[in-house]
Amino acid sequence: MEYEAVVQSALEEIDRRIKGDIYVEDLARAAHYSTHHFRRVFMRVTGTPVVSYITRRKLEHALYELSKGRRILEVAVEYGFETHAGFTRAFKRAFGSPPSLYCLHVPACPPERAAVYSVRLKQEAMNMQVQIKEIQPFDIVGYASRHRLPGVGNISDIPGYWEKINLEYGAALTTLHDTYRQSRHCEVAVCFDLDERQACFTYMLGVGVDGADAAVPQRPGTYRRRIQGGLYAVFTTPRVAEDQYVQSIHDTWGQVLGSWLPQSGYEYDEAREGYEYYDERDHGETAQMDIYVPVRKRGKA
């Protein structure tokens, strides 16, 4: 218990000084430990190195400030990152994904109170059920539109926003399924062309189109996009009642980007897009779907 109390005190001190320079030597001195011993204790209690935790905590606070519409460079400098590029590099190292993607899927909430148990829970997120597999490229045909995050309301509104779009396109998607009868019955939602500076993204919702339907004419007003193949981490949402479905998707994205990916040996492959995959499990009194995250081994560009 003594060690947990020491680390808890250090976590609170880090938050008090979150915008300033935080040195491990100062934290160790406050605990009356040597720097080496403090590092070992912090790692033992939380499962993460103290320097990595400090960087991640600064990034969590900075992300919340960005969600308020502040300029990236202004926030980056405020939290000790000298440039926009430096902030983005630090974020990718800490979370394994670019900040624009994280902001799109993880709610903009004030960082939770620093506590030993919460740090430990994030470390234990490796227990999420995931399949790492190679996916062959395939095409989707559907509807695309350009949006700004402020126009959605705020980042945490995006799951509800997706639901609204899906309802609007429901009849059109049924028509597309009737058009491409020989293709697998699935729907795919993908966000791409994320503009970090302008907080813009393109959203596309479509149906899978297989080679058997390659000669079928494309309907007016629709777009075709190729989902690239390669290595993906695949996460399945829990099967839940319809009124909990959108929230379950939102929660799973948050766990993937906020907890699993940062602790895994993988990073988000920005050369490809992640996507949501809906099939026959998406229909009925309860529903679930899959989230496909393009990954590569860390350090392999």
Automatic annotation (TrEMBL):
GO molecular function terms attached to this record: DNA-binding transcription factor activity; sequence-specific DNA binding
Pfam annotation, one family: HTH_18
InterPro entries: AraC_E-bd, Cass2, Homeodomain-like_sf, HTH_AraC, HTH_AraC-typ_CS, MarA-like, Reg_factor_effector_dom_sf
Top-level lineage group: Bacteria
Domain HTH araC/xylS-type: 8-105
Record key words, sorted: DNA-binding, Transcription, Transcription regulation
Full protein name: AraC family transcriptional regulator
Organism: Hydrogeniiclostridium mannosilyticum
